[in-house]
Design a protein that fits this description.
Layout lengths: L1 E3 L7 H13 L11 E5 L6 H7 L6 H5 L1 E4 L3 H11 L4 E3 L4 E3 L3 E5 L5 E6 L5 H12 L6 H6 L3 E4 L4 E4 H30 L7
Helix pairs in contact: 1-5
């Protein structure tokens, strides 16, 4: 799900081009594993404006799996509120200030992940779509790959869990070594153990 201003040429058009390009490179089946929904934020934008936005989608296959929606102000506000998306209209320039992000939804419409639409890469999008598919998207190998990756919400990317596990193991090893050295030093200061009478 991608929110755009159909008449925005600075961020929204490149965001759609990047998102559609990344979708085409995920290796997933267009139309059955995913669909792209583009929603216009400006109720004043025309159907012609909306159709012109489709020109940003380079792949005809992705374009066929794309739904572009327009609505009145109330409908747009209800949808954005339902998914937790915030935007502000700037009347001076007749544009919207909004996050440049793509929302990955589950089949039942729940937001699964939020990814940057301007820094989107096919690998992260692939993992997010598999995760949202809850076992119904991608191959068995793809689903097994999710066990090796974790979503880093602070950076909005998927990272190998093994690196986190190795960092934790390294920290525990350092702690164990420090504790062992401390115990040896303490035993040394206590002097030699006395045996027998």
């Amino acid at each position: 799900l991608l929110f755009v201003d159909f008449t925005c040429h600075t961020i929204c058009r490149p965001a759609l081009a990047i998102a559609s390009g990344a979708l085409g490179e995920t290796g997933l089946r267009v139309g059955s594993d995913f669909r792209l929904i583009v929603v216009g934020l400006d109720p004043k934008d025309s159907l012609t404006d909306a159709k012109a936005m489709l020109d940003q989608i380079g792949s005809p296959e992705v374009a066929r799996a794309t739904t572009i929606l327009r609505g009145d102000e109330a409908a747009i506000r209800n949808l954005t509120r339902a998914v937790g998306y915030r935007y502000i209209y700037d009347a001076d320039v007749d544009q919207f200030a909004h996050p440049a992000g793509i929302l990955v939804l589950t089949a039942d419409g729940h937001v699964s992940r939020s990814l940057s639409s301007l820094a989107l890469n096919p690998g992260d999008l692939h993992l997010a779509l598999m995760e949202a598919g809850r076992g119904h998207t991608g191959s068995l190998t793809d689903r097994l790959a999710l066990f090796c990756y974790g979503f880093d919400a602070a950076h909005g990317v998927y990272t190998l869990l093994i690196w986190r596990l190795l960092e934790i193991a390294a920290d525990l090893t350092v702690f164990a070594l420090v504790a062992f050295i401390f115990l040896l030093e303490r035993r040394h200061r206590a002097g030699p153990l006395k045996t027998g009478p």
